[in-house]
Amino acid sequence: MGIAGFAIFIGTGISGVIPWVASGSFAGAFLSLIIIAQIVEYFQTPKPKPPPPGVYQSQEKIEPEPKPEPKPKKNTKQSRTVSRENSPLEETITIPAKSSRRYRAKLRKDEVLTVEAGAEDWIFLELISKGGIVERSKEGRNLNVQFEAKRNGNWDISISNPTKDSEEVGITLTIEA
C-alpha cells in the first residue's frame, strides 16, 4: 500500500484529477492506511520465544533449579527382572489409571527378548535402553514386541495405562538364545 499509494497520490495530484485543496485529506487517508498496515503486520509476526532455562544470554548468571525431593519408596516391588535363567516370566497385573509398571530384562549379545502384553483397553509399551533411548514402542490392546540385543546389558520394559480406569494386563516376557 505504501509505494502504490504514494504513486497514486502523486499521479492524481499532478494530473489534476483531485484539486490541490483536497490533496491534504487524501494524504491523511493514505498515511493512515500505511500506518494501519504496519500495525497489522507487527501484530501478525510471531514473537521470538525466550530461550529455555539453563541457556545463557549475554553475561547473566543462571542459578541451578532446586531438585525435587525424591518420593519415599513403597514396600511394594515396582519392577521385576527377567533373564534367560527365569524366562519366561508370565503374570497378570493391575495397572492403576494413568500410571505404568516397569520390568528389567538382562540380555546377552544375540539373545532375543519377546514381550507380549494384552489388555481390554489401550496400553502403551516401550523398550528402553540403558541410556534412556526408546528402542521399540507400541500402543494398542494386544501388543507383541521382539528385540535382539546387539550387546550385553539391561533394558527396561515400561507398560503404561493412559486411560482413566485401572487396567488388568497380562504380560509374558521371554528370552531366547
Key words describing this protein structure:
2 domains, 177 residues, Jelly Rolls, alpha+beta, rod-shaped, 7 strands, 7-stranded mixed β-sheet, 20% helix
Give the helix level as a range of percent: 10-25%
C-alpha geometry? rod-shaped
Order of helices and strands: HHEEEEEEE
Largest sheet: 7 strands, mixed
Class from secondary-structure proportions: alpha+beta
Just name the CATH architecture of the largest domain: Sandwich
Rg (C-alpha, Å) = 33 Å
- The average pLDDT score comes to 78
Q: Note poorly predicted spans.
A: 72-77
- Briefly note the CATH topology name of the largest domain: Jelly Rolls
Straight-line N-to-C gap: 74 Å
The total of helices stands at 2
Total number of domains: 2
Top CATH class of the largest domain: Mainly Beta
Proportion in β-strands: 35-45%
> Based on DSSP secondary structure assignment, what is the total number of beta strands?
7
Architecture overview:
The structure is a single chain. The protein is of the alpha+beta class and 177 residues long. The protein is 20% helix and 40% strand. The protein contains two helices and seven strands, in the order ααβββββββ. It has helices spanning 2-15, 23-44; strands spanning 79-82, 89-95, 99-107, 112-128, 134-148, 153-161, 167-176. Strands 1, 2, 3, 4, 5, 6 and 7 form a seven-stranded mixed beta sheet that branches. The radius of gyration is 33 Å and the shape is rod-shaped.
